[in-house]
Design goal:
By secondary structure, this protein is α/β, with parallel strands linked by helices. The chain has one domain: 3-Layer(aba) Sandwich (Rossmann fold). It contains eight helices and eleven strands.
């Protein structure tokens, strides 16, 4: 989804939501992966600084962590086009999963471009993405945080009958089924966290910014704004 650089971007939630003002002509040109406090004032994680000015960014995280929102925010700040992979790649109408070979063909086309922000990477085509990724931004929030967000989002979708993922909607029956997004959260949570840790420990993998709280994510976005 092409995005033009905007004059402001919203970060935070609820009463803590605020806007960051941006110059409308910002261009990516500065290093912005800096050391920021994570999870409190008494302990810090040094965010990776190996990549300066990345143009191909993968946002990855546990289900319900806010990957799509963050991908959109990064795109608004940097002007890099972002892609909703569930909409563009994963699903056909009536919740029919697109055949895997078609998914890989679509992903290959997306990642062949010079600049993009992706809001996830599925196991069927993750290898194609990693071969081109310059930075992984990983949302590794506690289960309570991501699950609470997911329950709230699912309830909203059920009540409003929001249309997404190529014309699909969620029903209460779907939300409570064994194939629901809520059930997927429990099945995939540990595996996704292990994958994040594996990437972070692998020197051959793209640099990883591992964000463990909403506060650390907001701080990273502030640094991203200041670096543009």
């Amino acid at each position: 989804m092409p995005v033009e650089a905007t004059a402001e971007v919203c970060i935070g939630r609820g009463r803590h939501r605020r806007r960051l003002c941006l110059h409308p002509q910002y261009k990516s040109r500065h290093r912005y992966l800096v050391s920021l406090p994570v999870g409190g004032t008494d302990r810090h994680q040094h965010l990776d600084t190996r990549t300066s000015d990345p143009k191909r960014i993968l946002v990855y995280g546990v289900t319900g962590s806010g990957k799509t929102v963050l991908a959109r925010q990064i795109a608004e700040i940097t002007g890099i086009p972002w892609h909703s992979m569930d909409d563009e790649v994963g699903w056909l109408p009536d919740w029919v999963e697109r055949p895997h070979d078609e998914q890989r063909a679509l992903v290959s086309k997306i990642v062949s471009s010079d600049a993009w922000v992706l809001d996830t990477a599925n196991s069927h085509w993750c290898d194609l993405v990693l071969d081109r990724t310059e930075l992984i931004v990983a949302l590794d929030y506690p289960r309570l945080v991501s699950l609470t967000r997911l329950v709230g989002r699912t309830a909203k979708h059920v009540l409003t009958r929001k249309v997404f993922c190529n014309g699909n909607t969620e029903s209460l029956r779907q939300a409570l089924s064994s194939q629901s997004i809520l059930a997927w959260h429990f099945r995939s949570f540990a595996r996704k966290r292990q994958r994040i840790a594996g990437w972070q420990a692998d020197p051959s993998a793209p640099p990883v910014v591992r964000l463990r709280s909403q506060r650390s994510t907001e701080q990273w976005l502030v640094a991203l704004c200041e670096g543009h």
